[in-house]
Amino acid sequence: MSTDVHTQRGKWSEPHVPHRGWSCVGVDDLEEPSQVCEMCESVDIRYVHYMEHPDYPETLAVGCVCAEHMEEDYARPRAREKDLRRLAARRKTWRGRKWRISHAGNSYLNSEGFNLTVYRGSEGYRIAVSRRGTAQRQAGRKWYPSEEEAKAAALGALIWAKTHL
Ligand SMILES: [Zn+2]
């Protein structure tokens, strides 16, 4: 039994809840501490690690420290959280980027060798991304209700394009 005070609270003290052998099935950034860790039930978390266990019926949304103990891995949960922090910082910078207007009247942005375009369609706005200087282009299927939302989501398209285009 760990002497860490963190692992004696909440579900850590419930005998039917497994203490180890959990795996992370996803992560999320809530943008501010806004949810209580479902394992220790004592800290507010911003970066959520979704944990599953073969002997437990529910997915638990937990913080980094609990994820480390549940996985018995003290490197991976921290690495996941670091990625989320990096992405959050990136999103913040992204919001300040200046978009330009193309001859066709669409907003576009060139970044890291890619061209991102936001264009209007029947159900709102869509994103297209191309690798500059090539014919490789991908148009997103998702519709965004506003141009601003499409521009914010274009960061995801850029990250996708870097490994797919
Ligand atoms: Zn916790």
Detailed description of the structure:
The chain has two domains: 5-95, no CATH class; 100-164, Transcriptional Co-activator pc4, Chain A. Helices cover 28% and strands 31% of the residues. The chain contains three helices and ten strands; from the N terminus they run βββββααβββββα. A five-stranded antiparallel β-sheet has the order 6-7-8-9-10, covered by helices on one side. A three-stranded antiparallel β-sheet has the order 1-4-5. The protein has a two-stranded antiparallel sheet with strand order 2-3. Strand 2 and strand 3 (44-45) form a beta hairpin. The model has no long low-confidence stretch (mean pLDDT 93). Residues 37, 39-40, 43, 62-63, 65-66 line the site of zinc ion (ZN). Residues 37, 39-40, 43, 62-63, 65-66 line the site of zinc ion.
Main features:
165 residues, Transcriptional Co-activator pc4, Chain A, three-stranded antiparallel beta sheet, 2 domains, alpha+beta, single chain, binds zinc ion, five-stranded antiparallel beta sheet
What is the end-to-end distance?
49 Å
Number of domains: 2
Number of strands: 10
Poorly predicted residue ranges: none
* Share of helical residues: 25-40%
Order of helices and strands: EEEEEHHEEEEEH
Q: Structural class, from secondary structure content?
A: alpha+beta
> How are the strands ordered across the major sheet?
6-7-8-9-10
Q: Could you tell me the strand content as a percent range?
A: 25-35%
Mean pLDDT: 93
Rg, Cα atoms, Å? 21 Å
Task: Give the helix tally.
Answer: 3
The hetero compounds bound to this protein are:
zinc ion
Largest sheet: 5 strands, antiparallel
Shape: elongated
Q: What assembly state would you assign to the polypeptide chains in this entry?
A: single chain
